[in-house]
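hiii so my PI (J.) wants the whole complex modelled not just the main chain, which honestly fair. so below is everything: two entries, each one labled with what it is. i double checked the lines twice but i was tired so who knows lol
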Amino acid sequence: MNRKFHKWDLIITPYRGWFELHLDDIWRYRDLLWIIVKRNFTTFYKQTILGPLWFFIQPFLSTIVFTIIFHRVAKIPTGELPPILFYMSGIIAWNYFSGCLISTSGTFTANADLFGKIYFPRIIVPISEVISGLAKFGVQLIMFLGFYFYYIAMGDEQINPSFQTLLLLPLMIIQMAFLGQGLGMIISSLTSKYRDLSYLMSFGTQLLMYASPIVYPLSIVPEKYRYIIVLNPMTPIIEGFRQALVGKGHLDMSMFLYSLMFTITAFILGLLMFNKVEKTFVDTV
Amino acid sequence: MSEIVINIKKLSKAYDLGRISSGTLSRDLSSAWARFREKQDPNAPITTVDNLNKLNGSNRLWALKDINLQIKSGEILGIIGKNGAGKSTLLKILSRITSPTKGEVKIMGKLASLLEIGIGFHPELTGRENIYLNGAIMGMTKREIKNRLEQIIDFSGIETYIDTPVKRYSSGMGVRLGFSVAAHLDPDILLVDEVLAVGDAEFRKKCIEKMNNISAVGRTIIFVSHNMAAIKQLCNNCIHIQHGSIIDIGKPDMVINNYLKNTETMSDLISSKSFNLKRHKDIQLISAVCLDERSIETKIFNYENEITIELTYLLRNKIPGVFVFVDFHDIDGNLVLTTCSNDNEIDPIASLSNEKTIIQIRFPQKLLREGRYSVSTWIGTNQGISHWIIDEHLNMIVFEVVDNSTLIGDQRKGLLGPILKWNRI
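here's the output for the full assembly
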């Protein structure tokens, strides 16, 4: 060590500004991120009989149940689309969003023990959940495409993918990830102090699901109440998702831009709150 | 020439006791409402006299107060002090687990902390996969781990099981693997908290050697331990923290001697002591007493007498891997001997039933030379891969041995005074 002047690598001080995010730390720990993503994936099906099949079973069974209850029994119209495609597209998109939201919101409480023993950028944990969720989503999308091409091959003429909206699809997937993580980070920052919110989480996301056009198309919602459903930032994404793939769905630019702005705001707010809480949360758990 | 790698200036850490969140929104709201109406907070902790001294009338507990310290490269700094003195808080701030309330710390170089062994180990993953996971959590890159993989596996000595899930490992194997990863971290500064107390003697020796090697190449180590012998053996500098302040700094021998003299008042002989019940502890010591051969409580023993230390334990919940060790120090602060419950073929502590149990430790006659001795005891567990001190009592008993039966008597030097046979051949 022949450095003539002291150049400190790290200075620890009591306060950190709202905007000192140390995002370069995430880059330094990128290997950890990948290792955790891999761990999430391999430990998901260890010691299970069906293994990776679990990725398919849940959305498939939900689709069947939804088709029976909402389509056959409740007779909610699904447009001219085959109900299987209608429900499955909504379910896998919703699953990805709610998965990101729920796993991110539990970051501090679920990892309190680990975080109390060692430092690494805490945000690595929710990011890893979002990435492993994306892989799961990808696998489920392939299953969806299987049914999709089956219906096309059977000569279903109602399926007309919108190529313009298809271009927006990658953006919408990223948006779901950021929205889920943004809201999740806000909640995780609050749950580090108030546990009440974690009880609210599971049933809150369920309520939110019914406020999203998953079991019904937006077009059948009466004009009077439609604004409530449209205020839900997930609505344009689900509708857009359907429009891109099967050409049925209600999506206009203003709805989409609103959802995009909502996502960006929630993500930035979540990031700032998360950053603030991560410094001292070990003292409050 | 060594330079300063850690510079700690006026570092303080406070915990807000009364105002800390109660964890649920409704209770916080009721506290706020009570404060608003200037009524007594229904959720405030009941302040005992004992706590009052610490709090000085306010609701802030200062775990660290105005710590100033400079640590040079190549230094192995030992930190000693009672439980709750602030040692762990200091390590937690240095390792960025929590933030200070005041002051600042400047660090040069890469810092790694070892507050627990095998952090992040996932039971379903194999030993090899866990090396990557654990290494990455501690700040290594994938490439670094890959390059050192052979050495890590080799050092751990469990090559045969490296592709077995960690949940099939014994606790000892988990510790070996965890320490091997830690030993190959290669940081500029290493923080170690009481981890050497685990593992078998051979492995412990390996660890101490490894730490010596690390410092020999100019790395810095900060080492918190209750094990005075390990601090003496390893460290070249030592600080004593009491109530959040550094009260002594210097060579380990000196600081440790002062620490032991300071914490005990060996001027008074104490033949027995009983302890308050602490309901949150799964196991605790409730009383300790010194007995002579006729089971009578005694303070002063004859050199020719047997000495019995009787310890009464209360077990509330069974804990796996629990054991007790007892240290005997002389008046100069030397550790005369240590005895451990798991020295016995059947560990009497591990087989405790769910009630009060009395354990007797018997000293053979003519073993301790004339002088005063203090007795300290710890309950620990090697449960899983972490190591915890559950119950600690320093210098709880002080007894005296008087030698009127040998010619040399009180002139005998040395730590022990057994009678050896002299034979003319």
